Amino acid sequence: MNRALVALTSKLSFGESHLSQKKDSSHSLVETLARAYEKARNALEYRADNLVRRAAVERILKRRIVINPEPISLAENLLTELRWARYLTIEESKSKKIDELTSIIQKYVDLLGGPVPQEWVIKVASAEIEEFFDLNTDYKQFTFFAFQMIRQKIKLEDENLELLIYFSVDKIYAASDDEQILYHILTLGGENISKEKLAEAWHLFNLAKKHKDISKIIKYVRRQMPPLILLRDMYFYAPSDFRSITLDEEKFMKMAADTLEIQLNQMSGKVATAGTRSVIYVFLTKMVLAFGLEVPFEIFFYGSISRLPLILNLLFPPILMWLITMQIKLPKISEREALLGRTWNILQNFDELGMEADILIEIDKEKSNSFGYGIFSVLYAIFFVGIFGIIYFVLNQIGFTFFSKIVFVFFLTVIAFFAYRIVQVAKVYSWKGIEQERSGLTDIISLPILSIGSRLSKGLSKLNFLAFAFDFILEAPFKIILGFVDDWVQFLSVKKEEEILE
């Protein structure tokens, strides 16, 4: 057993420290209403399941800190609202000591007013609170194991290389969002947090996120993840057996095959859910606004509505998403066998992984600055313009107006980008070997569309008017009403015990 695996197994609990998470057997009217609200609110943002509760904590803190920044009040109200929305069971909310949660909140209240924007102080607080609620202490141990592996295989010359690898592994393998990554960088400096440490972590986070090589490293890390994801799944499939199977190849391969089969059976459901969320997200946050503008715009400037373009703009996004998700295929038997073999090989030859053929090395700077590179850049720019020129020409032939063309291209790029993200979800168990992955014709054609879709998604997420309306117009009065109803129900319960005599 290699040193990295020994270190990993020495820190795992093997299921012994995990508390059982029991669901509440009954739900009150308040909880039903709160849960319904959360489902509607979460539909406005494209967010993975593991990030939903952290985002809810952030929203609650942002709203409550304006009303009353007193830490004890914030902690009590936070637990209450999380229980209402069933992010915590009654038992879980009671098991979390209010003084510990208050201490966490107090720490970040004291950090307000420093060089880090208040919004991000609250975001980091929500990340720590999420980990405080998370009973699974073993997950992060696998992230560190993955970091040790990737560190061997990236040979770039950069003084911040370890930071870039840590950022990439945390983002791809641990599926952390920016808020959690910043918190994890902060914790690398120790448990004691000051304004100076937070400012330094904020600097390092932005340095990594904006680094010229980060996209290249993230892409490389994503290719290396399937066997590491399978290894982590195997542990959580049977924690108590994990140590023994790492010593026996036959047992390891059998459990790996069983675990992979289970995960692949669940994949179709995950893809369908992700596709549905993407369509709802685009429809609720963008389509209502777009058609609210398109119809009046065309009536005002053209005197009538072009029905075919309007129908195409309405039906195209869900149809495109459906067509793309229908093309997603699970790994073939040969690919599954290769994945199982690679997972075992990582455990047996961990210290030699840095000598493999697929290591990421520095790109020759002279090559990057060469005449040929400049020619390819010009050709790509022409290709980029040509793709959208063809789309513009086809839409013009159909009868699209200028504004309806903008709407169509907008949804084409955004949906294509969301579909790409869903395809990446479906590829988490797709292992192609250590050979360099090559792009096909479809990848080349879709690159300009995905590039625009990525930029639009990031930019317009900040202009989510419906989310703003929910958070600052609807949520505050709604939660006040829920609080009143909750107090009323408790009053009736006490009154019932007083009035009804046995």
Structural class given helices, strands, pairing? mainly alpha
Q: Order of strands across the widest beta sheet?
A: 1-2
Name the assembly state.
single chain
Instruction: Please trace the helix and strand order, writing H or E for each element.
Output: HHHHHHHHEHHHHHHHHEHHHHH
Number of strands: 2
Could you tell me how far the N terminus lies from the C terminus, measured between alpha carbons in angstroms? 67 Å
Rough outline: globular
Mean pLDDT over the residues: 82
Please give a quick description of this structure:
With 502 residues, the chain is mostly helical. The protein has helices spanning 3-11, 29-42, 49-67, 71-84, 90-95, 98-111, 118-133, 139-153, 161-172, 178-187, 195-209, 214-237, 242-245, 249-302, 307-326, 333-348, 365-368, 371-398, 402-426, 441-460, 465-499; strands at residues 154-155, 360-361.
Features:
single chain; 2 strands; 502 residues; mainly alpha
Secondary-structure topology with pairs:
Elements: H1 3-11, H2 29-42, H3 49-67, H4 71-84, H5 90-95, H6 98-111, H7 118-133, H8 139-153, E1 154-155, H9 161-172, H10 178-187, H11 195-209, H12 214-237, H13 242-245, H14 249-302, H15 307-326, H16 333-348, E2 360-361, H17 365-368, H18 371-398, H19 402-426, H20 441-460, H21 465-499
Helix pairs in contact: 1-8, 2-21, 3-4, 3-7, 4-6, 6-7, 7-10, 8-9, 8-12, 9-12, 10-11, 12-14, 12-16, 14-15, 14-16, 14-19, 15-19, 18-20, 19-20
